[in-house]
Amino acid sequence: MTILLASAELEHFAKVGGLADISAALPIGWEKLGHDPIIVLPKYACISESDSITLIDMHIELSICSHTVHVYKSHIQHTMIPVYLLDCDELYKRPGIYGNPDGYVDNDLRFYVLCKAAFEIMIKLHISPDVISAHDYHTALLLPLLKLDYAHHPLFARTKGILTIHNAQYQGWYDKYRMQDISNWDFLNDSHESWFLFNNSFNALYAGINFSDAIVAVSPGYAKEVLTEQFGEGLEHVFQQYQYKLHGILNGVNYESWNPEKDEYLNKHFSADHLEGKYEGKQILIERSFSKNRHNDSLPLFGIVSRFTSQKGLDILDGCIEQFLHEETVSLIVLGSGDEIYQEYFTQLQKRFPTACSYTQGYDESLAHAILAYTDFFLMPSAFEPCGLTQIYAMNYGTIPIVRKVGGLKDTVLDFDSNPMNGNGLVFTDFSSEELAKCIRRAISCHADKQMMNILIQNAMQSHFPISATAEQFVKLFDSLRDTH
Ligand code: ADP
Known about the structure:
The protein has helices at 18-32, 89-92, 107-125, 136-139, 142-149, 176-183, 193-196, 204-211, 220-225, 236-241, 276-289, 314-317, 321-326, 340-352, 365-374, 390-396, 407-412, 433-448, 450-461, 467-482, and strands spanning 2-6, 36-42, 53-61, 66-75, 82-87, 131-135, 160-165, 173-174, 197-198, 201-203, 214-217, 246-248, 301-308, 331-338, 357-361, 377-380, 400-404, 426-428. The chain is of the alpha/beta class. The protein folds into two domains: 2-252 and 468-482, Glycogen Phosphorylase B (Rossmann fold); 276-464, 3-Layer(aba) Sandwich (Rossmann fold), CATH 3.40.50.2000. The structure holds adenosine-5'-diphosphate. Adenosine-5'-diphosphate (ADP) binds at residues 17-19, 21, 305-307, 335-337, 363-365, 368, 388-390.
């Protein structure tokens, strides 16, 4: 099967969060199953040309503008899976991917061109994809393009379109008049209005949902949650209407990259049977993160690696973690960036507790791996979490996740107290600082009991969510759609 995947992010090329990890891991999983994935990605300023070749030049003609796109060909690291990079300075050569905090004003055009170019590349190369795999609102417009603009093109006549939703909070609300000019879809005048406009505004995710052959939410838990007002982000009735084509497939991990025995970002390696490297790594991480007059090194070490948004539950950390830092029962290492309010919060926290809290602002791949691998507990008190990958990575390194019972966290982390045989983390339910504090106290007690902590670590390290299982479920879904011709 030929599977065309277009995404706004791709690991080792351009990454903000888990979308990048999955956009790379899924094709690797598909290729191992004998399929032919093809990836299309914008060539952002952060992507170098060193390992790529120019392939084709093409013109994307729109009614309001035209763009010349040079297409480079590269590969996913350690594979021959092709990655077609769209080089178009005026659209993609910018410091960031999305233009935070409010997004670039022309994101409508930038992501529309990404989708359109994906089809044009297939035409230039005479490739007929069996499946088009769209991810989040950025590439959701692949689906109306498939069903309207390219429906009668022989290369796409049999192609099925699947929208995977990694986060329904981001929907791509665009100006409808500008979007009509960009796309030429006549939704302001004809019967397609209700396919594109939601609450009278253009909504890219909504359009993708309408035109998709199937929708995948990134965990079974999230597939149920989006049907509710609490998690549906205003689209709950739309998800309810399409429940017949809504599937929950749990994200998985490429354990080649996230492996404590050979992780290329780590200096100290270890395994479930030989944890010495984890403790040596912890010591080095502590020495790097704190000054000499730090807390006692034997305290339980907590880690956070996150995009800073209200989704990640940092609001309940505020007013909770201070008591533990104050009474010197934990140390905390934080890596992340995003909303100003949280950056400021952690900056102040570090100032207040310099011997117990270390904060690094920004994006740092090797520090992220070190925190996930070498801390004792990983904090993820999310308000909502479609799947979450970091808690799964943490478990594979024997770092115990402390999570709220929501979305994909609920599907991957089993509370140790309620399941002493196979519990792999600590779980709380209510979104409150008090509940989180109780969970942190439980973590401190576990840490004090070496035997119990060791069982927890072994349980966590035995919890596996391989990308092969995810890739297989997607393929089953693709097959079932292809049978419906
Ligand atoms: P989300 O996709 O909501 O951001 P996930 O847990 O699914 O959350 O995935 C986050 C991914 O981004 C992980 O690979 C994590 O290691 C990485 N990440 C998040 N913040 C940073 C950061 N500041 N520096 C490096 N990696 C980060």
